[in-house]
Amino acid sequence: MSTPRRKPRSYHPDRVRDAVLAQVEFVRLAAHELTPQQLGRPTGLPGWDVRHLLAHLARQIDALPQLLAEPAPRASRPSCTLSQWVLGTGEIATKIDSWAQEDAAARDDQAAAIDTAAEELESVIDTGVREDLLLPHVFGPMRAIDFTVTRLVELVVHSDDLTRATGSPVRLDRMAVASTVRVLADALAEKAPGFSTELRIPPFAAVQCLAGPRHTRGTPGQVVETDPVSWVRLATGRATWKTMTATGRLKVGGERAAGLADELPVLH
């Protein structure tokens, strides 16, 4: 018997808009505070120092204005969902790295590049949270609001990268974190469908996944639980299952639940 498809989660346009603008501002302010020494620090991402990371952030912020400037797709409905975007990112990893290398080499002032991208984004953000508009994404037509939610994922993941690389905390907007946690959890549930194991990331998300006996009542026998930032790091390969369980930031109950380790990361 096939596993029934989950109903896609919805995101409120006003909340998405406010969260994107807030997280962009936190990134922008953090970029201007960095010292020359911090700019040269490694990020843990292969071949990227902080300058490469800032160049990537500027491009990700500018991605919505760029897509909105392109001709609308001829399709009448989307073919790329949020989970498909998450699970497909590994296919374009080489291209993303190439862009970061080129952008970092092309200009010295990456903070200024982020300023420019932020201004462009703010001018189109209301269009970017429309639910009735399709954008011509490389993975297929995508709803504008869904693509804008992906900007939250990019911003939160790389804000945390910036914090860890520089030692200077970048603020995280609560709604931006909540959306990122939910997008990544839903992608895991789509990658490993089933109802045998419950993944909990309080207070933002809980999803069931992994094939096996379905839990119907009481406390699930197979439970994985962690905090939001730890989940973001696990889901994106910034942290390992072994390290997180050893430090107590990831709690695993039940033998089957450990099988989730084989499905991570979901975003490359």
Automatic annotation (TrEMBL):
GO terms for molecular function: isomerase activity. Gene3D superfamilies: 3.30.1050.40. The keyword Isomerase applies. Keywords: Isomerase. The keyword Cell wall biogenesis/degradation does not apply. Residues 22-162 form the Mycothiol-dependent maleylpyruvate isomerase metal-binding domain. InterPro entries: DinB/YfiT-like (IPR034660), Maleyloyr_isom (IPR017517), MDMPI_metal-binding (IPR024344), SCP_3 (IPR041629). Residues 173-266 form the Bacterial SCP orthologue domain. This is Maleylpyruvate isomerase family mycothiol-dependent enzyme. It comes from Streptomyces spiramenti. The lineage of its organism: Bacteria, Bacillati, Actinomycetota, Actinomycetes, Kitasatosporales.
